[in-house]
Every structure is written in C-alpha cells, then in structure tokens.
Amino acid sequence: MKNILILKGNIIFTKTSDRFEICKNSYIVSVNGKVEGIYKVLPEKYMDCTVEDYGDRLIIPGFVDLHLHAAQFLQCGMGMTNQLLDWLNDYTFDLERQFQDVEFAKEVYTQFADKLIANGTTRACIFASSSTKGTEVLFDILKQKGIGAYVGKVNMDRNAPDFIIETTEESIKGTKYLIEKYNNEKLVKPIITPRFAPTSTDELLEELGKLAKVYNVPVQSHLSENTDEINWVQQLFPDSRKYLDVYDKHSLFGQTPTVMAHGIYLDNSEIDKVKRNKVTLVHCPDSNINVRSGIMPLRKYLNMGIQVGLGSDIAGGHKIALNEAIVRAIQLSKLLSMNQPEYEPLSVSEAFYLGTKGGGQFFGKIGSFEEGYCFDALVIEDDRLISDRYTLKDRLERFLYIGDDRNICARYVEGNKL
Ligand code: GUN
Ligand code: FE
Description:
Belongs to the metallo-dependent hydrolases superfamily. ATZ/TRZ family. Its cofactor is Zn(2+). The longest helix has 18 residues, at about 320-340. The chain has helices at about 85-95, 100-120, 130-145, 170-180, 200-215, 225-235, 245-250, 270-275, 285-290, 300-305, 320-340, 350-360, 385, 390-400; strands spanning about 5-15, 20-30, 35-40, 50-60, 65-70, 120-125, 150, 155, 190, 195, 220-225, 260, 280-285, 310, 375-380, 410-415, 415. By secondary structure, the chain is α/β, with parallel strands linked by helices. It has 14 helices and 17 strands. The strands form 4 sheets. Strands 3-2-1-4-15-16-17 form a 7-stranded mixed sheet. The protein folds into 2 domains: about 5-60 and about 370-415, Urease, subunit C, domain 1 (Roll), CATH 2.30.40; about 65-360, Metal-dependent hydrolases (TIM Barrel, Alpha-Beta Barrel), CATH 3.20.20. Helix 2 (about 100-120) packs parallel to helix 3, helix 3 packs parallel to helix 4 (about 170-180) and helix 4 (about 170-180) packs parallel to helix 5 (about 200-215). Guanine binds near residues 69, 92, 222 and 313. Fe (iii) ion binds next to strand 5.
C-alpha cells in the first residue's frame, strides 16, 4: 500500500542557492514519505486522493539545524559576556551535570524537543550531555515526537570538572551501548560526539574513531572556534600540526560522514583538508557573536566548494529558531562586507539554502522538494494584509525576518504530520 500525501499551496524551495523555485498555487505529492512531484494541475491518478488545501499559505522545506546542545536549553541567553572557555566553566558544565538525573532530563528534553519542533526544525544534529542515561532519554523523546535527528552522548575524559567527565572506558562503553541500541532506528540515530579536542585524550579519540568505523556512525564535534581554544589544542597536542589533525589522526575527520561546528580560523591547508575529506562545516552566527569567537569567513568557504550548513548552537546561540540563524547569517555577511568591499553578502536564497538543503545534505536527500527528497515541510501562514499585497518571495523573506512559531501552522517529517 502506498502512503500518499498531497498538499496544495504556494510552494517555495531552493534547488540551488542562487534562486528560489516558486510554484504558485500548486500541488506537492509525497509517496511513502518522498517527494514525487509538484503539479499545477493534479494528475489523473491522484484524483481520488484527499488534498490538504492550505490555500494562500506558503509550503517550504523544514529547517535543518546542524549544531545545537539540548543540555544547554535552559541556559539560553545567559553568561553572554563570557568568551567560550570561561562560559563553559562558569555556566555550561554544571548545567550539563544535572542530566544524570533522568527525571530532570525528561522534563528539560521534552521542553527542548517541543520548542525545536514548534519553530520548524525537522532535522537536527544534537549534542546531549556526557550522561548515557540522560542521552537515552533524549533519543526516546525525539523518537516519540517524530523529528529526524542525530544525537550524541558527549565524550569527555579530561580538562573539565570531575563531576562531568568520565573515564575513557566509561565514555566508550556508554557510547557503544547507545550505538547498539539506536543505530537501526529510521529517524533518530546516534552520532559520535567528542565534545572537542581539549576535553579528550588521544586514547578516547582513538577508541571513538574505531567505533565510528566499526559501526559506520557519523561524527560531530567543534573545530577552531576561538583563539584561546586553538592555542590550548596546540599545547595539549604538540604532535599535531593543526587542530583538525587531532581528529583526522584518529579517523574522526571524514572517515565516516563528519560535521564540525564553527571552523572559524582555518588556514588554506586546513580548508583543503576539510574539502578533501568532505567534512561539513556549521556556521553558527549567533554563537559567533555572543561568545565573541569571531566570524566564520563563510563566503570564502562557499567559493571553495566546502559543504556548509547552519546551526543555532544553543546555548552559545540564544535562539532555537533556525529562521533567526538564517537572518543572522545574512546580517553577519553584511557586516563583513562593510569592512571588506570584495566580500559579497549572502542573498536571501543563499541563506535559506544553507538552512534547508545545505545542511540537509548531511542527512541525505533532505531540505528540498526535488523528486526523491524526503518530504519534510512547513506550512507558513502570514497576515492577509501582507499576502494580498506582496510577492511570494517577499512574504517568505518577511517570515524569515520577523516570523516565529505562531506563523507555522503545520510540520511534516518524511510525509508524517507532527
Ligand atoms: N566547544 C566545546 N564545547 C562547546 C560548547 O558547549 N559550545 C560551544 N559553542 N563550543 C564548545
Ligand atoms: Fe556548540
């Protein structure tokens, strides 16, 4: 039996970053969770199917958040005068510790998941905490909610308070347990998650690299976010010429699909390696600003053909809504262009692409409405006074800039309505 879903409305998506595909007043057909086609006139064979008619509303791909920390959800908008390493010590570690308490984890992760989904994120790469039990709670909540995600237990075995680090053996054992339990899930799957180089021993990274290869699991971490962090990595790993070599040496840099948050301070040889190893970088504009890490030279990476997505990086970023990250990416690119006349700011379609198909490629055929793509979609409702007067492109831009969860009236993941 085929599972057929048909929506009608104003369909907007980006196949390439340079322009929007706009199908006014059209039908989009999803068969077994995959886009089958977009039609101005519904084909004969679908005549008997029910159509969910969204009238003049917009239908867009769901947002993809390639980097955020579920265990930092309560901390959004706090400690924002600190830079990264102080912020971790003063705020983050103690909060993450509390996710050893399963009841606390249930309460916070439920709120987190509801908020993420309400704001239109349909796929996400998520850091949990170092607690295996707590991370299990997050897997189960996300599964139950129907969102698509990679979820990582955070591995740390040094250079953080005792209450949050584990021994190398404990950290590996918990990771292996979660991989074996969830690796065959369809929508919510494990990802190997060393927090970042400084809180990892070589032994931990080596064992994680082996797990990644044996179980064919993807990898996520942080890379070159802050200058103090980079200097610290240099001291801790004197044998590695560059920060990314610490990961690469242990098969955690593209040996399986890899996504690295930030990558702000990469020299040309490092950028070449990111490209060669097909590592995806995540631009987290709010986080870049809040903890004053620096601004990712996004245009340079795009010009060089690096795969890039967007991340809210809550709680380095303060807002979970990805439309805010899309807008902030545009705004930051404008700031850069003011000091560097040759820097071309991001267009709306480029930023939208990054927040949908650009990040979505890490999950597979996600983030577009081309044939064969997973049907992950949002239905956007705006003000009648606006919809009567403006083009569809203007209405989408307005939603990105000033819209929020109240404008999202339906959400679909692989053809299922959430
Ligand atoms: N680097 C290591 N841990 C973190 C974290 O929790 N947030 C951010 N933004 N960077 C990190
Ligand atoms: Fe982060």
